[in-house]
Amino acid sequence: MKHEWRKHEKSLYLPKATPDLVEVPAQRFFMINGQGNPNGEEFAERVKVLYSMAYAVRMMPKGGVTPPGYVEYTVYPLEGIWSLTEKGRKLQELNKEEFLYTIMIRQPEFVTKEVAQMALEKVMKKNPHPFLEQVYFQTSEESLNIQMLHIGPYDEEPKSFAKMDEFAQENNLLRIEKEHREIYLSDARKAAPEKLKTVLRYRVQPK
């Protein structure tokens, strides 16, 4: 049976538009780091490279290689971990050039370092790109998070974060890092800004 994250992992990818608490399991990712405005060409190129890696794994059986434990699946959505440079934190207004980010695409459980390396070699041969050398494969730790669905432009996310902060206060939870995570359920190139759907998430622990 095909694994579809929208159907089989709703608690992680299709939350309500109100804050809630969720246990996020350890997950495997292709990741790449960057700095600067996400509206720029460099960010778009990093996204493109990540997707080329993700689809290289997804299409391996059609190329004659089926990794052990392979199951048919839908490619996971793009995610991002966001923070600011020290300079950016000191500014009175948000400067997008001071963003620090890690963008990533989750991989199924059958993807090992060996499978990731095979995908990298395949992409380097078929679609070489200088950013491919910056892609790495990593497993995240299990964590407790507050999350909610944000509907609307990215620039209006502070309204949703305010609701999440209020939820944390009410439930005696402490945010344990300044960075936050976003999961992009909409294609920003196609969807109207007011209809964009983004999962917002940050890690917490009981006070």
Automatic annotation (TrEMBL):
InterPro entries: GyrI-like (IPR029442), GyrI-like_CCH_Lin2189-like (IPR008319), Reg_factor_effector_dom_sf (IPR011256). Residues 19-199 form the GyrI-like small molecule binding domain. It comes from the Bacteria. Pfam families: GyrI-like. This is GyrI-like small molecule binding domain-containing protein. It comes from Niallia taxi.
